[in-house]
Amino acid sequence: MPGIPSDSASLIPFSLEGSSQPTPIYPLQHGLRSPLRRIHISWSCGNLLHVTCLGSPPEHDEEMVGENDEIGGKAVEVTLGGAILEGNIGEDKRRRIAYESVKSFAFLHDKKISLAKMETGDNLSAPALTYWGQYTLEYSKSIRELLGIARLPRSLIEAPKTFLKEGEQPFGTKAAWELMEIFYVDMQMLSWLPERLVDWLEEYDSLLSKTESTVHAELENLQRKLTSLQVIENEPDYWNGLAATLAVGWLDMVVKLLRLHGSYDPDQFDKRETENGLVEAVVLLVSEMPRMRPDLPNRKLGICYQTKHDYIKGLEKWRGKVSGLEASPFWVHCSHHKTRDGLINLLHILLGDAKHIADATCHWLELFISHLLYIRPLTNGLEGMSNLAEKCMHLKPSANNGLTGLLVGILSENPEIVLADCLKAFGPWIVAHAVDLLTANSEYTDELLNEERYQLGGASIGELYMLVYTQALASHPLTWQVAPAYLSTCLNQGRGLLEILLLKQPVQNYRTVLKTLEICHLYELANISTHIMKMAGMYQWKHGHKGLGIYWFQQSRDKTRLSQIAHKLFDNISKSFSDDSFKQWEGLMELLGSDVGIAGGLEFLHKYRDFKKSLQQVGHGRTTEAGKKSTELLVQLMRNPSTPQRFWLPLLHDSVKLLEWTSGPLLGVSETNLLLGKLQELSMAKSRPDFYGGELTANALAAVRLALAKNLGRAILEES
Amino acid sequence: MEAQQQRVVAALEKDAACCGWNFCGQRLAVGSFDGTVSVYDSHDSSSAAASSPSHKWKVHTNGISNVVWLPPEAGDAIACVCVDGTFSIWEEVGEDNQTIVWRRCFLLESTSCGILDVKFRVFSESMKMITAYSDGHVKIFELVDALDLDKWQLQSDFQNMVDPVSRFGNYDCFSASIAWKQWEAQLQRAPASFVLGFNSDSPQLNSSKIWEFDEAHHRWIMVGELALPEEKGDGVNAVAWAPNIGRPYEIIAVASCKGIAIWHVGLNPGPDGRLSTKKVALLSGHDGEVWQLDWDMSGMTLASTGDDGMVRLWQCNLNGVWHEQAALDCGTVQT
Asked: What assembly does the database describe for this protein (chain A) (predicted)?
């Protein structure tokens, strides 16, 4: 499974542009001395490529031979395409997400099938589309939950000077997922888009850039400084941090920071009541800021408005209060200049002053969200947002990473770019799961991503990304079993890839074979399971596990191989008639049953076995009753047309002691004549080129003839 | 995203001359200059690199030039081609006391012309083996008994030429590359097909041709040629037939001195008995000769290697344009 992430290009992105980028070249870490003699490549399962480097032929000058010369080559397994998921998470979490997300995915697709079954036409009706939208939202939420819960403060009793949340580090894939949920799935929340982006940024601001400054990074610096600061309001970083925090709308943090202001300190010598009153007035205004959203999570500040009308009314009233405070005469009584300037700066931000907002924010995306919050709170069209984003990027140029690139793709309404960027930045898992988000509420995107394309071999873009994800899953023995659920949704190429994936699984281990067969059964791939059973049968048969081999051949109804085994059995028994060799094959006869092989062949062997057993009893007990029973079996076998001719002489030779039974003839005249007839036939057949005489010699033939003559003579006497 | 992750899975003993991975990618057979074969097992990703082979035995007094695994339907078996032209098939068997040994089950003594390439494929009822010889002959053998690799029957012997008149000449071939049509046919009883190209002194022999088995007349017929008129004489270094997981066309890669050509080939022959063929890309990137081509299991990514010491990975983008997606630099190669 997957490796360490970096921002280098992925090997399997199936980009739109392709060749415009320079080809990334990675060194192969084989550690062999140059020059190499040969490089051999071989694909394994999924994205695993075996590269075997063979070194130069050995030096014959012994003095030149170093330690590394003992190695003739190295085989290196290269996992291409990297991790299934963007990687600042552990291997176990990645695997857990892969295992658990399949449930939500399969559930959603089951619902899709059920909905489609209820519809008469090709397309879903309006009510069905509504249901589909709801199912997709539930799916999105379940995946979001799986990716991790939002960061919460560690304890309700927070440290007095701690204003930044602590907890699990945010996870890029989750941030990307939420962004797509906001824009593509949660349609009811579209009216509160700016507010949703504020919440999103609060959670994931730290992921915007690793190298450039962000509000989160500024606050982290401030947090570190706080413990050593005596007079916090004298520190410019305090006021900068406050302005930045307010600009991006993290109001609870603003209030907490304001209340760290020295004027709240009860043990002070100066009279700072007015100063404290002004700070608290700003706190009050911040706390009462109108928010265009249905509700606010616990401990979040602001006053919610659900209708545009109420919101505008509330906003006007609130802005009036902010302007009033800005023009208040109390500022002249505030002797602490930094406090006065800092607070007035905050009021400018609250009033939506573009310059102050631009100064306060660090990254273009922060500036973009600030604009949405304070200047254009009623924006909800993607076109308007896209123009705004462009303007912000121009004002604050910063390198786009996976998340910001994704937002740009979303705003430019290009689902192909969105998926391609997601694949590059976050790996194939998110793309495979996000196709349903993108298509949930857009007929256009649905058509675009599910349209069959000739240049993709008849697959759609959606299907292609699914195949890419399953290839990544197939690259590891612990995740390949998850792949079939996804492949089953790929109508054009899923089945083909699933068949190959199943056939690629090793067949040495019984349990692994059972697991593979279970998947074949689940997806109704009877021909593949037959094939796997044949392979498992061959492996076991060749490795000395004859019984298990026959078992798999029987399971696969492999008449060809079973028949060949029966032939072998036949040949071996007919070549060697010793009791020991017979015992060796007896178990196989039992396993094969009697209905396998050449017409009536094994049925004969079963009767032959019974005859041999009865002969043994004759040998031990020598009772006439046992002798008679053996004689009956002998006659039955000789009368049976399916008894091969090559067995006639051995049968008769085995029966000499029956023919020479001392207490009286066991065979009647007619039965003896039958056996003599067979012997005559054998004598004639000897001249034919295809005659197989086995190991018995002419002496055996003479001995049988004599015994038969003796028996006939005694039988005639007895019957006359 | 990290583009690749590497792990050494086996350190090979000295004298390694050639190698081949089995179908599951868990076993590596290595042929040596001293005529021994070693098998290395690499069972899972957590295990350490195999530093010694699980089995090693002497195949021949001469060095080994090629090792090829048979399909898993034959159990665990390999075919070895020696530098003197001797060809043998070895299988892993469990003896009565459960010790595992490799036994030779088939041998073709050395002849004046060596085997340049050998490939196996399983069909619903049988297994076929194609061998390409240095005199330009192609021999196709069929396994007589599915349980025994001892008996192979020669089914056909022909040369890789369009014009039957010029067949059976004496040619000198330096290399040959064979690729069976995979998967789909295996499971759906479609006619057996393969593509074959030579690098020889004969222009007629060289170009890659697709051969299909005509069940009705029990003979192999040529159904397509993968070369533009002006390229027909170019020697072919490697061919690879992509697994078809559901495309309405086949994809075949052919490497020659001009680069790697990607061909789209129709699924069914037209009225003239020929498959439609279209060269959709010519990939240049290897600085020198291309040694080997291999498609991944989905047929979406092609890997190639050559004497520039690079492993190059090729993909088709969403607009149908083929390009080099990435490369692995293995270092300098002896020339």
From this structure: Component of the nuclear pore complex (NPC).
